[in-house]
Amino acid sequence: MNRSELFDAIKRKKSFLCVGLDPVIDRMPDYLEGDVLGFNKSIIDATRDYCVAYKPNTAFYEALGLDGLTILKETIDYIGDDHLVIADAKRGDIGNTSRQYARAAFEIWGADAITIAPYMGSDSVQPFLDFPGKWVILLALTSNVGSQDFQLMRDQNSQQPLYETVMRKAAEWGSPDQLMYVCGATHPEYFAELRKIVPDHFFLVPGIGAQGGDLQAVCRHGMNDHCGLLVNSSRGIIYASDGEDFAEAAGVAAKVLQVKMEGALATFLP
Amino acid sequence: MNRSELFDAIKRKKSFLCVGLDPVIDRMPDYLEGDVLGFNKSIIDATRDYCVAYKPNTAFYEALGLDGLTILKETIDYIGDDHLVIADAKRGDIGNTSRQYARAAFEIWGADAITIAPYMGSDSVQPFLDFPGKWVILLALTSNVGSQDFQLMRDQNSQQPLYETVMRKAAEWGSPDQLMYVCGATHPEYFAELRKIVPDHFFLVPGIGAQGGDLQAVCRHGMNDHCGLLVNSSRGIIYASDGEDFAEAAGVAAKVLQVKMEGALATFLP
What we know:
TIM Barrel; eight-stranded parallel β-barrel; alpha/beta; homodimer; 12 helices; 45% helix
């Protein structure tokens, strides 16, 4: 799914919601007896109309055991081609190794996009960008408390914080048609600045819901003429209920966000 | 394997070699017909006496397909308890997600240690440190060209480069008994400074061999009273030959490094 197809989907569905598929067996309804694929399929069926993207986080599949990646692939297959599928993997290694990660994510699991950690620099990111039609989503300013440990450190020459240096450098590596950035909703005060740094790239925005971010503030400062935002909710949707109505509750939670996003698009889309 | 057990193994074997197990089917001898586990077992049998650690990089197992993690686990099982097993995974995510990665690496795959990327800060690292008896190996100054993109950026207040800030902060999170750092051998000129920052922690040192690093310089400036170095070689050992003698050639390549390390220990161990 390329950038204009993504924008078309956003306009058609009046939503820029990404649903995070992070299954933990202990939090699933007991009657499912640990059937993660069944859980995911029910969540996908219930939320499909309200979102444009799904984001399975690989950690939750690796923790399921040695067949976790099979469940990941079957989940991605079930999602199909109408949604952007983001493997939230936060990978990154030297060039010949990153190429192996890219093959796994894009060719084996079948994801459209993968999240990447920038610490190792250009040659750790480039192999992912070399896959035509696929997306790299680079960590910039993350939503967690630890984002303040290193990402806000200012360079003595440019005075730029690290996340800004990351965004500026990476914009030289990947165009808005192949590169997005992770920018956490827990930092809404930064979004006007973030948007000045890279006006055209999409942002993947975690941190609304369980982490407390502010959707309206993110949209006010972060939306561009292609929307430019994919706002993720994981736990707020997939664990909206731990009863037999979990899928219905997930659908309602996704619909509530879609309605808010419809309003935000009407208000803030240029 | 705790720090004094690791030092005991280094003294007993007169080696601080870590063998990187990064199998690529195209580079394995044809007659193995893609039998990665068989390849790994032959390499392990041939090198076991000359090294104290093995480092399978998860990328190469993920790229093998959906059963790649089974091959990873079977490889780790085959190594046994006499060597430190490092899952070179470069993971890192928000707290509840890092906990899943830690469970996968330590409880499912059975690794003793995992490499972690620091970009997301304290709460992305802590869940790995919470596993008693296990090791976190944090990226500090990596061996690749891209290490210069962000890791050398100097903070406007402390004047410290990012890798130093990472090392200092992380030393508050994890003691030398549970935390190591990745410091690339392609930067031997930095090792005296690195050792001043964290005198007691072990360094995992990639970048000799295919990447061109200088073992002697690393030892001269980096060795401490527990050795404090695990020097990795991957391609230089496992692809020493692509013929039927691949295992024998790997053993010879490992032995050559062990002899160099024996000399370095005699010269530089305080």
